[in-house]
Amino acid sequence: MFAVLCGGVGAARFLLGAKEVCEADQLKAVVNCGDDIVLHGLHISPDIDTIIYTLSGEINPITGWGLREETWQAMGNLAKLGGKAWFNLGDKDLATHLFRTELLAQGATLTQITAALAEAFGVEIAVLPMSDDRIETRVLLDETALGESGEVGFQEYFVKLQHNVPVKQVRFDGASSAETSPQVVTALKEAEVVVIAPSNPVVSIGPLLALEEIRQAVSKRFSQGRPVVAISPLIGGRAVKGPADRLLSELGAEPSSVGIAKWYEDLIDTLIIDQADSHEAEAVEALGVRCVVTATDMSQPGVAADIAKLAFGL
Amino acid sequence: MFAVLCGGVGAARFLLGAKEVCEADQLKAVVNCGDDIVLHGLHISPDIDTIIYTLSGEINPITGWGLREETWQAMGNLAKLGGKAWFNLGDKDLATHLFRTELLAQGATLTQITAALAEAFGVEIAVLPMSDDRIETRVLLDETALGESGEVGFQEYFVKLQHNVPVKQVRFDGASSAETSPQVVTALKEAEVVVIAPSNPVVSIGPLLALEEIRQAVSKRFSQGRPVVAISPLIGGRAVKGPADRLLSELGAEPSSVGIAKWYEDLIDTLIIDQADSHEAEAVEALGVRCVVTATDMSQPGVAADIAKLAFGL
After folding, report:
1. What residue ranges define each of the domains in chain B, with the CATH number in brackets?
2. Given CB atoms, is B276 within the 8 Å cutoff of chain A?
């Protein structure tokens, strides 16, 4: 069994490849919920949804989020009413949030609801929220950012401001008191390999590692010499999508394979990097991290499966 | 200025006529919120929405509720997920509930939100929720009802069970401690005439009169000899729409003009009844209530305006 620490789009693409190289019941995705947001009273879990939609083939292939063949009546009317419409929720997508919110109100856990959603979408991989408690990724914007300052929620930074403002600090509100689920703890303990997906280290994997139980489980594996493999989300020192490179810089880390290796220090034994960054392999290995160089552009056919094979040691 | 105590469809049609016979700013609709329901985390106010949609011309003319040219993607997908889909929420209609829920979470009152919605829909009549507090109409089903017993929320009775089960009792949870808004109190005090719309006396007007401030304001007017006029929702002893006649019977009242006059005893001085019930006029007057017989079928052109003229004494 393989456990994968996941953010959204990058992780979802990796999982698509992973399920080509092993049985679906051998895969457990532990997914970031720090991006979750309550909007209009609805509980939205963007990373979980991106993973379920991607694995089911229902993802919108153009946007990379939301559902295919979507319509936008609700948002169109909300905008007419003068409501907050910066976070786009398609009509079909809304059903997912209505379903989740109703069941949460009835006392179901996010873990239970996510399992029900995955099943309804025909996803066979175990999709495990990192926690049933509320953790909120909060982004402190740099004072020098014109027009915007202070702390905002992750989606305000990412979607509303289009991550187009410098960041001073990121914190995970609620993480210190949050628990993770027994399923997550077991998955991280029993997995043959734990993989850190090619997701944003700061805001996608960061919330997972901010949970004491997850960090300790990964750290313990590392100290016992049991495999923990990270896949760099950078190609040629740049994020494939999103602000990973900029965020690393802004928080004082290097936006490079070496920066990633240091970010995951004492947690990973292997880092898979792109061939465009092969010149960094030696420096990564100098940190005591085994460095595997390969093609990592998952927009190309077969690449995600090949990376999964390498990561899983198959 | 005229104040109208309102339920949903019948009241909305009456108001459409009323605004033909007086200026819009002379009309204040005080609307039932006992039917309000929180579903999927969203606060839904069916009677308020029916009134706003009807007055704006956006009501779906076929169903009598919801918006015209509606689509059903969200509900269709929710049903596929196995979610509760018995309460139909169209995609465009959802925007109203998202808007309301978001603003409630931000601390706005239902009164403020309803005013914003009315304005966005171009409705000039003041639409006043009966209260900013939560009052829930609860329906105790008769034990003899096959398969269903115990107490259910109003929408479960009305929509899910299609009011197709006998009722033993109706109560208005929260009404004894709820306050109404200053706008409502002022409207009922200052109106030249208070009109009770042709709505269900039990479950539409009932919640309004269960609020001490509203009942007292109407009762005080009555005792001072200031006009309070009710319009019977029955034609030929039957409800035009919905279960008013059956509910009256089940709760021990007569489903007739006389029954309505008794239901509003010591609150109204005038009852407008349909010509099909003209044989009851004498019995109504014997109760000390002036009885006006006229055509009340508001599906016919001009009828709502004619009733409004009579009710307002114009």
Report:
1. 2-39+176-312 (3.40.50.10680)
2. no
